[in-house]
Design goal:
single chain, mainly beta, Immunoglobulin-like, five-stranded mixed sheet, elongated
Length: 733
């Protein structure tokens, strides 16, 4: 009974244990895994304390994964999933004598990226274009559907139902051709791809890509404008503007067509400005409108004509300039914006003037005008590569004053008298004519055949015997300067003097005591006398620098005490009576002896050898004084080449020492001064007498050499460090 009961209990326990052992596999079959992802298959048991597991494929191919078993669970991990993992996997669990097997299918797919939209070219209005939608790395593509839409309008769609020939991802494409319009600008081109696999999540089954349409319009309707004109004057400016339609907005380029046909790039702007145009700038200019859709061109023909260019010079081809005046020669350019000027004389001598240029005018100012300015002047104007030259001749003249009439004496009836007509400071003298008239009768005329480049005095003399009938008549001196081609005034000058004829002569003489030439500070007496009867009335005058007479005294005798240099001059004694007037003159010369002579040595009368010393002699130079610098010597004096009383010794030597003398000579006397110049020699290293050395030599057996050394050092110690050539032997220069 007990045995039966025990057997029954064991059978029941085995039955219970058998019913409790179960095996589960997850995830649920089938598994849809993306290629490249990681997938884990888990096999778990219940009802068994220590189960054992094994994994295999139904086709008995490699697992291509890793198995991990822990307790009642075993995991097969495939990382990454590939086509080698697309199988039915079997998990076998064994618990003692019991074995349970479960299977699970693993399928792979690939749908990793959004579609790609490609266009066959830029979108241009009216030009067909092909849009391609690419869906890369799809598997299995027999479940793929692609739609291509433009602004929600379906252009084309396609379902791919063919079975793949091999297990590999494929790139699938859909193409659609359309013609863009202006209305397509900004619209969206959409490519939508759907992989119809129910086992994957809905958000992973569909991908799309959107591309905004950028529709281009190639450049067209190019328009150009030229200001002021396509025909230009040389030196002018032109502005050319170019516009073009198109999308995107075309970029404008300006080029010039070369003779070879190539284009020379000029500008990347819509406006091209050319200044200072030259004739070689003529040609064909090309405006190009360029954008990514294309290019369009338009040509502009420019013609640059030679600019009229002229030069005027004033006051004219010839100008008469009065000596000492200021003359302005003006050169003006017309038809040139930026001329350059240069002036020169025709004989290439110095201009002797000031040039000023501003804008289109240049002036040459000659101030004051002198004989060095009597040339033909050339003004050269350069405008670009052109050059023009104008000539103007400057001719000088001098005709500043009216003629001067002088009589050789008082007009006395029956006595010959000489009338002179003087025209001072005339140039050119060979163009002068002088006529002397008495009343309306020409007494004499004179032309001058030669002329110098200097101011000259032209004169004419006529000797005639006056009569009482000449009283009241006019003595006229006419002077004419014949330069007909020049305009200046006056060309004719004249002076008139009324004649008054006396009836009796008066012999007037002047006695000067002690002499008419005397030293400054002395006294002089001048007495006027006449042998006429009755005695005339005397009047003393002094002649001024301008020829006029300044009243001095009405006494017969005048005395100047303590004369000065300013008293020099011409003194006129005029005797007058009821019948006649006569006068005579004497020139008084007051001379000044030289004085205040000074002789100096700079920087000092005692200098060192090698220094620079200047010996200067000055004195009052009234009247003219001759200054002579010389060096005194026993063998004879040496006259030095001084400049205005100065003599400079560069790097003085010992032989330059000595006595220097300055002499100031004049007609009235001689003065001299002298100085002594001392030149010191430069100090040299001195050797001194050494008592220690003397003891050394005296204590030695070499007595004679010791004595020689003593004598040597004694002589050296007694030598002087400086000396004067004044005390030395005189130079034999």
């Amino acid at each position: 009974m007990v045995g039966i009961f025990g057997a029954s209990s064991l059978l029941w326990m085995v039955l219970v244990a058998s019913q409790a052992f179960k095996v589960e596999i997850s995830p649920k079959s089938p598994v849809m895994a993306p290629i490249g992802a990681s997938v884990s298959l888990t096999c778990s048991t219940t009802g068994c304390t220590s189960p054992s597991f094994s994994w295999r494929t139904q086709m008995d191919s490699p697992l291509n994964g890793k198995v991990r078993t822990e307790g009642p669970t075993s995991t097969l991990t495939m990382d990454p999933v590939s086509f080698r993992n697309e199988h039915s996997y079997l998990c076998t669990a064994v618990c003692e004598t019991r074995k349970v097997e479960r299977s699970i299918e693993v399928h792979v797919y690939s749908f990793p990226k959004d579609p790609e939209i490609h266009l066959s070219g830029p979108l241009q209005v009216g030009r067909p274009v092909t849009a391609t939608c690419l869906v890369p790395d799809v598997y299995p593509f027999d479940r793929l559907v692609i739609d291509l839409l433009k602004d929600k309008h379906l252009l084309r769609n396609q379902e791919f139902r063919e079975l793949p020939e091999s297990k590999s991802p494929e790139t699938m494409r859909l193409e659609a051709t359309f013609t863009p319009t202006r209305e397509d600008i900004g619209k969206a081109l959409v490519c939508r791809a759907a992989l119809h696999i129910d086992e994957i999540d809905a958000e992973l089954r569909e991908r799309d890509t959107t591309k905004e349409l950028q529709v281009d319009i190639p450049p067209r309707n190019i328009a150009t404008s030229v200001s002021p004109s396509t025909r230009l004057r040389e030196g002018g400016s032109v502005t050319m503007t170019c516009t073009s339609e198109g999308l995107p907005a075309p970029q404008i380029f300006w080029s010039k067509k070369l003779d070879s046909g190539e284009l020379q790039h000029l500008s990347g702007n819509s406006t091209l400005t050319l200044v200072a145009m030259r004739m070689e700038d003529s040609g064909t200019y090309v405006c190009s409108g360029v954008n990514r859709a294309g290019e369009d061109k338009k040509e502009v023909e420019l013609i640059v004509q030679e600019k009229p260019f002229s030069v005027e010079i004033s006051p004219g081809p010839q100008v008469a300039a009065r000596v000492g005046d200021s003359v302005v020669l003006r050169c003006a350019a017309a038809g040139c914006e930026a001329p350059s000027f240069s002036w020169r004389t025709q004989i290439d001598s110095p201009l002797s003037g000031t040039v000023s240029s501003e804008g289109a005018t240049s002036t040459l100012t000659l101030s004051p005008v002198g004989f060095e300015n009597e040339h033909s002047y050339l003004c050269t104007v350069t405008c670009g590569r052109k050059k023009l030259e104008k000539r103007i001749k400057v001719e000088l003249y001098s005709f500043p004053r009216d003629p001067e009439i002088e009589m050789s004496g008082v007009l006395v009836s029956g006595s010959p008298v000489t009338a002179s007509c003087t025209v001072p400071d005339v140039y050119p003298l060979d163009q002068l004519e002088i006529q002397l008239l008495k009343g309306e009768h020409i007494m004499k005329s004179k032309n001058f055949l030669e002329s110098k480049k200097s101011l000259e005095t032209g004169s004419l003399e006529v000797t005639f015997i006056p009569t009482t009938e000449d009283t009241g008549k006019a003595l006229v001196c006419q002077a004419k300067l014949y330069i007909d081609e020049q305009e200046f005034g006056p060309k004719e000058r004249q002076s008139t003097q009324e004649l008054y004829v006396n009836t009796a002569p008066m012999n007037i003489t002047i006695l000067v005591s002690p002499s008419s030439i005397l030293e400054e500070g002395r006294s002089v007496t001048m007495t006027c006398s006449s042998d006429s009867l009755p005695a005339p009335k005397f009047r003393w005058s002094r002649q001024l620098g301008n020829g006029q007479l300044q009243f001095f005294s009405e006494n017969t005798t005048i005395t100047l005490t303590s004369t000065r240099r300013e008293d020099s001059g011409i003194y006129v004694c005029e005797g007058s009576s009821q019948t006649a007037i006569s006068k005579t003159e004497v020139e008084l010369i007051i001379q000044v002896a030289p004085k205040d002579i000074q002789l100096t040595a700079s920087p000092s009368e005692s200098v060192k050898e090698g220094d620079t010393v200047t010996i200067s002699c000055t004195c009052e130079n009234v009247p003219q004084t001759w200054i002579i610098l010389k060096k005194k010597a026993e063998t004879g004096d040496t006259v030095l080449k001084s400049i205005e009383g100065e003599y400079t010794i560069q790097r003085a030597q010992l032989e330059d020492a000595g006595v220097y003398e300055c002499e100031s000579k004049h007609e009235l006397g001689l003065q001299s001064r002298s100085i002594t110049l001392d030149v010191k020699g430069r100090e040299s290293n001195k050797d001194y007498f050494s008592p220690g050395l003397l003891v050394l030599y005296c204590g030695s057996s070499l007595v004679i050499p010791a004595l020689g050394m003593i004598i040597y050092f004694a002589r050296k110690a007694n030598m002087k460090g400086s000396y004067s050539l004044v005390d030395a032997q005189k130079s034999k220069v």
